[in-house]
C-alpha cells in the first residue's frame, strides 16, 4: 500500500519533546521527507533522507524510522513550532508520491 | 537563491478549463524535476503531477486524464492545463522543485501557491 497515516493532532508543552509518527509500508525500504506548514503559508522542507536537514533548519528537528513507521522528533519545542506537519515518500514505482494526512501540532 | 512563483489561478465554472504557470529562478528546469501539489481548503497536501529532468510526466490518480503538465525550458516555466474541472479541484496549487535521488527525495523549495476555485 502507498498510503501514509498520521495522527490528526498532537500537543506538547512548551520546551518539551514531541514525536510525530507516520505509518506506511514504504518505510520498511524508504525514508520520509517532512514538511512544516504554518497557516496561510506554503510548506517548508525540514527533513529528508536519513535524518538530513536543509540549510537553515534547526537541529531541534530530527528524523528516524523503525519497522513501517517514520518519526519526526522536535526537542525543546517552541511556540512557533505550532504548525501542521506532513510526511511524504515515493511509491514503489519511484514515479508517484504520497503525502500523509498531516498532524497539527499544538504547543501548550 | 532558488525560488518559484505560481500564477494564473482564478474562478472557473464546473466543467471548465484553466492553465496555471510556475516560473523558476536560480535553477534550471532542464536539470531538475518540478512538481505540482495542491491543497483543498482545510485539507492536507495532495501530489498532483511531476515532470522529471528528462521531460517524463507522471500524474496522481485523481487528476490523470484531465490534467496535463508541460514545461518550457527556455522560459524555465512549468504549466498545468486543467480540463473538466469539478468542485473537488478547488484548492491552492503549489509548485515545488523536486529531488528524485534515492534516498534523498524531497520537494523544496516551494512557491507561495496560486488559488483555483471551481464554482458556478
Can you put this structure into words, describing what you see?
The complex is a heterodimer of chains A (108) and B (120). By secondary structure, chain A is an all-beta fold. Chain A has no helices and ten strands. Chain A has strands at residues 5-6, 9-12, 18-23, 33-37, 44-47, 61-66, 69-74, 83-90, 97-99, 103-107. In chain A, strands 2, 4, 5, 8, 9 and 10 form a six-stranded mixed sheet that branches. A four-stranded antiparallel sheet of chain A has the order 1-3-7-6, with no helix packed on it. In chain A, β6 and β7 (69-74) form a beta hairpin. Chain A is globular and about 40 Å long. Chain B is mainly beta and 120 residues long. Chain B contains no helices and eleven strands. Chain B has strands at residues 3-7, 11-12, 18-25, 33-39, 45-51, 57-59, 67-72, 77-82, 91-99, 106-110, 114-118. In chain B, strands 2, 4, 5, 6, 9, 10 and 11 form a seven-stranded mixed sheet that branches. In chain B, strands 1-3-8-7 form a four-stranded antiparallel sheet, with no helix packed on it. In chain B, a hairpin with a 5-residue loop joins β5 (45-51) and β6 (57-59). At the A-B interface, β4, β8 and β9 of A face β5, β9 and β10 of B.
Which short descriptors sum up this protein?
heterodimer, A: about 110 residues, mainly beta, six-stranded mixed β-sheet, four-stranded antiparallel β-sheet, about 0% helix, about 45% strand, globular, B: about 120 residues, seven-stranded mixed β-sheet, 11 strands
Short description:
The complex is a heterodimer of chains A (108) and B (120). Chain A is an all-beta fold and 108 residues long.
Topology, please?
The complex is a heterodimer of chains A (108) and B (120).
Chain A: E1 5-6, E2 9-12, E3 18-23, E4 33-37, E5 44-47, E6 61-66, E7 69-74, E8 83-90, E9 97-99, E10 103-107
Parallel strand pairs in A: 2-10
Antiparallel strand pairs in A: 1-3, 3-7, 4-5, 4-8, 6-7, 8-9, 8-10
Chain B: E1 3-7, E2 11-12, E3 18-25, E4 33-39, E5 45-51, E6 57-59, E7 67-72, E8 77-82, E9 91-99, E10 106-110, E11 114-118
Parallel strand pairs in B: 2-11
Antiparallel strand pairs in B: 1-3, 3-8, 4-5, 4-9, 5-6, 7-8, 9-10, 9-11
Amino acid at each position: 500500500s502507498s498510503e501514509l497515516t498520521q495522527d490528526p493532532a498532537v500537543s506538547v508543552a512548551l520546551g518539551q519533546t514531541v514525536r510525530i509518527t507516520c505509518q506506511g509500508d514504504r518505510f520498511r525500504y524508504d525514508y520520509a521527507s517532512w514538511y512544516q506548514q504554518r497557516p496561510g503559508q506554503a510548506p517548508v522542507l525540514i527533513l529528508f533522507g536519513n535524518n538530513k536537514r536543509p540549510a537553515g533548519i534547526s537541529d531541534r528537528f530530527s528524523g528516524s524510522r523503525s519497522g513501517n513507521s517514520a518519526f519526526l522528533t522536535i526537542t525543546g519545542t517552541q511556540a512557533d513550532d505550532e504548525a501542521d506537519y506532513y510526511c511524504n515518500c515515493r511509491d514503489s514505482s519511484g514515479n508517484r508520491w504520497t503525502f500523509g494526512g498531516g498532524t497539527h501540532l499544538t504547543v501548550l | 537563491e532558488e525560488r518559484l512563483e505560481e500564477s494564473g489561478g482564478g474562478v472557473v465554472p464546473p466543467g471548465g478549463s484553466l492553465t496555471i504557470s510556475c516560473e523558476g529562478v536560480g535553477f534550471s528546469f532542464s536539470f531538475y524535476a518540478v512538481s505540482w501539489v495542491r491543497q483543498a481548503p482545510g485539507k492536507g497536501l495532495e501530489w498532483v503531477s511531476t515532470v522529471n529532468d528528462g521531460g517524463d510526466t507522471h500524474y496522481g490518480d485523481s487528476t490523470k486524464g484531465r490534467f496535463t503538465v508541460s514545461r518550457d525550458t527556455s522560459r524555465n516555466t512549468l504549466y498545468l492545463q486543467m480540463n473538466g474541472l469539478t468542485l473537488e479541484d478547488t484548492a491552492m496549487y503549489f509548485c515545488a522543485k523536486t529531488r528524485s535521488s534515492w534516498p534523498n527525495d524531497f520537494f523544496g523549495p516551494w512557491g507561495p501557491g496560486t488559488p483555483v476555485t471551481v464554482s458556478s
